[in-house]
Amino acid sequence: MANHFSTTVSQLIALIKQPPSPGTRRPYPKLRNFILDVMAEGRRKNTINLLFEADLTPIQQHLAQYAVQHGGRISMTTYIAKSLACAIDEDKTIHAYRYGKSKLMVFDDIDLSIMVEREIDGETMPITLIVRAANHKHIGDIYQELQAAKTAPLGEHGPMSALEKQFFELPSPLRKIIWFFIRRDPHLFKQLAGTVGITSMGMHASGPAVIIPITPMTLTLSIGAISKRLVLEDSRPVERDFIQMNLGANHDIIDGAPLMRFADRFKQKLQTGCALAHPQSTQ
């Protein structure tokens, strides 16, 4: 036993004394603290996930119809995001937040927190664009905001304000203290993070694939890749495109059956094209 322990120690010492492997040592990007904080907050939630798919044919038809009628295009992500806001608008408890131990805060405005990939200080990173009151905005306005977020200088009309950048450069202990107050105030959380998360990474994959994220939001939609499968049309097998998606929900607030019903309502909104209608009111 003693000889085995001595041999193990000798091997470890020999490994330590070996010259370091060749490579390049680079500083860890401070702005990735945004990802670390989101993961830490997401692990505090009891998240359930619902994987499903939607027929892409009616979505493509609605997008083509919009292009003809308005002389311009909108992205599929924009269409799906607006359809999600339409579905939530019919039952806003699906994006409620805990308010203390005995209350829920149900917001009237649906603030969509959409992940946008940008290059910051030489690093490609996902950052958030918050589309405020998406349930009261026309789909064309949402599309313009998304386009601006991909190209506008940070801190102006795009995501990642100077204050947010400074926050994520703070030491971890200070950020944890601030997050302590953020997570206890749904109004502050809404202002800083929105109420519903959307992430779209399907363009980076082929075949059926979707991300199941760690999320601090009550409701998060992940938009996955497009895959083909056979369906029956007039009693004949036809190949159709389907888009893979996932809904992540805080189980402290949303149960499985309501989440299933919401997913069904959301798919109906995608098929009927309600996202293209003008909102009833604006704010």
From TrEMBL:
Start and end residues of each 2-oxoacid dehydrogenase acyltransferase catalytic domain: 24-150, 194-271
Coiled coil stretches, renumbered: none
Gene Ontology MF: a single term: acyltransferase activity
Superkingdom classification of source: Bacteria
Name used for this protein in its record: 2-oxoacid dehydrogenase acyltransferase catalytic domain-containing protein
UniProt source species: Sulfuriferula plumbiphila
